[in-house]
Every structure is written in structure tokens, then in C-alpha cells.
Amino acid sequence: MSMKDRIAVVGAGCTAFGEHFDKSYSAMISEAVWEALDEAGVGPKDIDGAWLGTAFPDAGVYKGRSGMDLAEAVGLFDIPITRVSNYCATGQDALRGAVMALMAGQCKVALAVGVEKLRDRPPTDSIVKMMTDAGHPFLQKGFTAAGTFAIYATQQMKRFGVTAEDLAQVTVKNHKHATLNPKAHHRKEISLQEAMQSPPVANPLTLLGACPTTDGAAAVVLVRTEDAQALNPDHVLLKGHGFSISNGWDLPFFDETYDFSGFRATQKASQVAYEMAGIRNPLEELDMVELHDCFANVELLTYADLGLTTPGEQAHLLRDGVTTLGGKCPVNVSGGLLSCGHPVGATGLRMTYEITRQLQGRGGKRQVPNARLGLLHNIGGPGAVSAVTILGAR
Fold it and tell me: Please, which residues bridge with residue 218 across strands?
């Protein structure tokens, strides 16, 4: 059953992303949720069901193991609250759960929340340490995100002629966009030379071409469209959504037919979302995109996975200014993960917040002119999990 135009975002909230040593997990939830509730004109007692997205509750803060942590933070009791974890697509999976409940008639007002606190922890509680200890006993050893995506970057350079300067230009673009976003973790413009000379983390990826470790929270209030006007005339509509898990930890690394030129999960999720939204030519029809630039090369790969261009031509979109603010289809005008940071459970809903504000014409200095249709995308694990959501102005 299609979701198109049946669900509306009537409230959105987001903390600033950064190093919040002065804010607890619960305090960040409270800040994001109350901004969303206030915009929607509802209170905790009006929420019929909620979804809490935290990807790594057992690393450091030991919060987010249960919906109880959302209930306590905002006084949200006596309703079902589901805790969600799905790697970097966790926030969008929380959104998906809320949408499904609304469509099923189980909720009249639903809340989706994403939160992660990654800075308040010693190195012994890092994500890398946690994954090494708790992951696959063989495949996880020596695994890092940078090492994984560096394999893709090497292939991009070999097969498609992507250069180190292209990767640096992604970093320069997104950091420049972030100077216009008061909620971004890093708001400093950087030069091409600084990006090129940034220390390597996994050749050819560099420190400035990798997203920072960050704290943050975001939330959205959703209702069925027929109920939206009475709550918030400035609501936005869900146009399409796709979610795919297309491989596991041992793939694609043990698939001899795989060429590391894209992510099947993103391709599948975007196909579903586009069909639902009735989009045939994404580059012509989308006004903006927030995509998962966990590393600079992933942004370039995703241009093709989302159908904005064909494989091998991604760098031309960047070089020609198509994806820069003011271009035909701006990408990551928020600053993306490279500048906003990546509190894993919160990122998908931070993107939802960004697209919502843009479609409402409330993007401030980074406003995309006449934005009517926007897409948000996440990818998680070794490219295995992907979610794509399309939102439109009413």
C-alpha cells in the first residue's frame, strides 16, 4: 500500500550537533522532542505511540536499550514505545515504524526520535572497540568504517578517474554549506589545500573527508494527512519511502562478482521510494538531497545510486556545481555528516528536520530557493542497510 501523501510531518525538532559534555542523553531527547511537540501544538499526552532510535546503547552511556529511556525523558507514559537499532539507518527506521502505525490506524499522533551520545566515553568504549568485541569473531577483526569505504574510494579512482582533489572538493563544499547551519558540529570553511593535506585515515581517505564523532538528537511528530491541517498548516507530506538490507557482514567482500562501484541497498531503497513518489527523473524533479556522506567518496558514489547520474559520471556533478547550494540539485546544504557529525541514531531524523525546514521555507541563509521536493538517504554497516525518504511541500 502506497504511503504517498497519506502521512504528514507536523512538528520537527533537533539539537545542535557537537560535543555535548554538558548535556545528558535524556536532556538531548527532551530538547529535540519539545521543539517538535511545540511546533505540532501537541503535548506528551497526545502521543499514541513512539519510536526511539539509538544504534549503540551498550557503548559508553548505556542508554537507549528500551523505550523506557524516552518515556522518562519527556514524561511519555502508558503508551507503546519501541526501541529501534539498524546501524546508520536507525533514525529512518524509527520514522518508518511511526508511519506504519499511523497507516495501520494504531496511532493518531506518532513520535519518532533519534539520539546518540558518542563523545562522553573513554577509548575502551569506542564503537570500533565494541564492534571488535561483539561482532563476527573472524570478519570483524581489523574492521573499521574508514578501511571499508577506502576500498570503494580506491575503485572509484581506478575505474572512474575520480581524483584526490574530487574527494577534497566534497569536503570543501559541505564544510562551506555548514557555515550557514547553526546546528552543525563543524562550522568552519576550509580550503582545498587544507582538505588535500588533511592527515590520512585509510588511503585515500583523509581526516577531513571523514565524519566526526558527535552527540545529538532529533525528533518528528507525524499524523495522517487528514489530521495535519488542524495541527500545523505548514506541514510537509511523505511522498515515498524505501528501506533495504541487501547483504550481510561477509558480503560484498566475498562476492567475486561485486565491483565496489555502488551500494545495492541504496539502489533498491531509492527505486521503491521513487516508484511510490512517482519520480522518473530524480535530477530534474528533486530540489535538494541530504545524503549519507560518512566519507567524502560515499557522497560521490551515492549520486549514481540515487539515479542523479550514471556510474562513472558522479564527479562531473560536483565539478560543474550541480550539487552546490545555488546549483540545480544541492546536496547536503546542512553540511552533511562531514560537518554536522554523525550521532548514529539521530542522523536520519536530523536529515528529516533539515528537509522539513527547507520545504517550509525556513532554511535561513542556506535556504534552497523554491524547494518543493526533497530526498534524504542513509546507508549503514558495510553498505548493507539503506533507507530513502522523499518529502514534499503541501
Answer: 14, 114
Model confidence over 115-141: pLDDT tens digits? 999 987 766 666 666 666 666 666 666
First vs last C-alpha separation in the chain:
21
Q: State the DSSP H helix or E strand holding residue 110, giving kind and residue range, or none if neither.
A: strand 109-117
Beta strands in 180-284 (DSSP E): 200-202, 205-206, 215-224, 236-245
Residue 224 backbone phi and psi in degrees, to 5: -70, 150
Burial class (CB in 10 A: 0-12, 13-18, 19+), 78: exposed
pLDDT per position as a tens digit, 202-256: 999 999 999 999 999 999 999 999 999 999 999 999 999 999 998 755 556 667 7
Is pTM beyond 0.90? Reply is yes
Distance CA 362, CA 364 (A): 6
Catalytic positions, written as ranges:
88, 342
Helix axes 164-178, 296-305, angle to 10 degrees: 90
How many Cβ atoms are within 10 Å of 156's Cβ, its own excluded? 26
Give the burial class of 233: count Cβ atoms within 10 A of its Cβ; 0-12 exposed, 13-18 middle, 19 or more buried. Answer: exposed
3-state secondary structure of 374: strand
Question: Are 239 and 5 in contact, with CB atoms under 8 Å apart?
Answer: yes
Per-residue cell: 251: 558480503
* Residue written as grid cell 535556504: 367
The per-residue b/e assignment along 249-283, b for 16 or more CB within 10 angstroms, e otherwise, is: eeebeeeeeeebebbbbbbbbbeebbebbebeebb
Between CA 302 and CA 379 the distance in angstroms is 10
CA–CA separation, 174 vs 337, rounded Å? 9
CB-facing half-sphere around the CA of 18: CA atoms within 13 A: 14
Residue 187 CA to residue 19 CA, distance in Å, equals: 13
